[in-house]
Amino acid sequence: MNAEKASTLKLLKEGMGKTVQVLESRGGDGVHEVRAYLPDCSETSIIPILFLLTSLAFLEAGPGEDTLSDEYAEIDGWTPADFLSHLRFEDGELRVSLNRIRGRAVYTQASLSYLGNLTLRTRARGQSATRWLSYVQGRSHLQEV
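^ that's the sequence the OP posted. Answer follows.
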C-alpha cells in the first residue's frame, strides 16, 4: 500500500465513530444546511472528520451539466492533498469550501470548531449532508479495497 492510500485510510477511520447530535436541518434540494454538535470532537479529530465528510461529498458528486467529458472520471479519489488545498482556518474554525473539482459538481461547504460545532451546506445535493453524518457516527459500509 502506498503512503497516500495509507494516509487516506487512516484519516477516514479516525473520522468515524463520533457522537453526532443534529441541531438543525433546513432547506431542501436547492440549498440544504445542517448544524450539528459533536461532543467527542477534539483538536485532533477535526481534520479526520472534515476529511471524511469532504470525501463523501466528492465521491457522491456527479458531473455538472456543463462539464466537458474529459474533466470527469467516474473512478476518481479524494486525497489528503486535495483536502489540504481547500482547507482554511477562519473565525476559530477549520473550513473547507468545494465547488467544481475535476469535473464534479461538489458544491459543499463544511466548517468545524474544536468545540464540536459543525455546519454543512450543500447546493443541488438534496439532503446528502444529513446522510453523511451517519458515516461520522460509524454507521457505514466503508471498507478497505
